[in-house]
Design brief:
Elements (H helix, E strand, L loop, with lengths): L11 E5 L4 H10 L7 E5 L5 E5 L7 E5 L6 H17 L4 E6 L18 H12 L3 E5 L14 E4 L2 H12 L4 E5 L5 H10 L5 E8 L7 E7 L6 E9 L3 H12 L4 E9 L5 H6 L5 E5 L13 E4 L2 H12 L13
Parallel strand pairs: 1-4, 4-5, 5-6, 6-7, 8-9, 8-11, 11-12, 12-13, 13-14
Antiparallel strand pairs: 2-3, 9-10
């Protein structure tokens, strides 16, 4: 006999870092599995140690970590988890990063700047990742930064269906925070029954981070409930100025919808005092109790991540989850 053949069963295993364990547990529950027990801690000098308490040999590994603050520490832990799986002979390693750290640094605006989003992709490839799953990338080109499959998931169905159920009887308009996200706004409009579109013309300063110089509404929003959509809310300056511009232009009200609630200071105060009647986000990033406020609604992204992981594991279609847009 010159060869030996054996058919083995695929084995799905889900791992979670320490950045957002609640999301990891929720995703595992969607898949009807338990998270793999993991020992993780920091040494006195800040170095991170990770060890998995079960054999992972031959498994299809899905490693979940939200890139939240302190973002560099959690990205490093994520990389170390991938390296540990590779060295322990996992068969396939899928990095699940609901929020892709450094995603806003996706191109050079001026000379001598890095493209840090590409660097993050290269780091995960070097560590041993075979695939990436992420939600609402800041720019579509990030899918090409990783040398392997990238499944780009969308929170739009989750957010839009919530808004349609709550505000569907009102006269709605979908507003993009800038001209570059009009295509996304068009999909929002279709999901909300053909609502009209508008966008905010803005001028962003290149010398000061997170600062918008001017806003102007392009489109008719008079008397409408405006659904103001974006991929993330960081300090809240852009989205709040857009909401104020809409109200000044005659809108009946503003509902803010965003996937990633980064909520760096002073975002919470800005949103509390903004004219928005509700701020709807997902839990791709952890939101501490002190950052929650009356107008904030947090929807779980776990069902979408769970469905995507199951589709990847079973060699199914992720694109079909989003009407061909993934």
């Amino acid at each position: 006999m010159t060869s030996y053949t054996k058919t083995t069963e695929k084995n799905l295993m889900v791992f979670s870092g320490r950045a957002h364990p609640e999301l990891g547990e929720a995703v595992a529950a969607q898949l009807d599995v338990s998270l793999v027990p993991t020992s993780a801690y920091d040494f006195a000098n800040g170095e991170t140690y990770v060890r998995f308490e079960e054999s992972v040999r031959g498994c299809d590994a899905f490693v979940i970590q939200s890139h939240t603050v302190p973002i560099n520490s959690w990205i490093m832990e994520h990389l170390i988890m991938v390296d540990a799986l590779k060295r322990a002979s996992a068969k396939r390693i899928t990095v699940v990063m609901p929020f892709w750290g450094y995603s806003r640094q996706d191109k050079k605006h001026r000379g001598r700047e890095p493209i840090s989003a590409r660097l993050v992709a290269d780091l995960f490839k070097t560590a041993g990742a075979d695939r990436i799953i992420s939600v609402d990338l800041h720019a579509d080109q990030l899918q090409g930064y990783f040398d392997g499959p990238v499944d780009h998931l969308h929170a739009l169905p989750l957010l839009a269906d919530y808004i349609k159920e709550k505000y569907g009887d009102a006269d709605l308009a979908v507003v993009s925070p800038d001209a570059g996200r009009i295509k996304v706004a068009e999909r929002w409009a279709a999901r909300l029954g053909g609502a009209p579109l508008a966008f905010i013309h803005k001028t962003r300063r290149t010398d000061v981070a997170n600062e918008v110089v001017a806003n102007r509404v392009v489109g008719d929003v008079t008397g409408k409930i405006c659904v103001l959509t974006d991929d993330m809310i960081d300090t809240g300056g852009t989205i709040v100025k857009a909401a104020e511009a809409l109200m000044k232009d005659g809108a009946a009200g503003v509902v803010i919808a965003a996937t990633h609630a980064i909520l760096s200071d002073p975002a919470v105060d800005r949103l509390k005092n903004s004219p928005a009647v509700e701020v709807v986000v997902t839990d791709t990033l952890p939101i501490e109790d002190e950052k929650r406020f009356d107008k904030l609604t947090v929807l779980s992204i776990a069902p979408i991540l769970g469905r995507a992981i199951r589709a990847v594991f079973e060699d199914g279609s992720v694109t079909s989850m989003f009407d061909g847009h993934a």
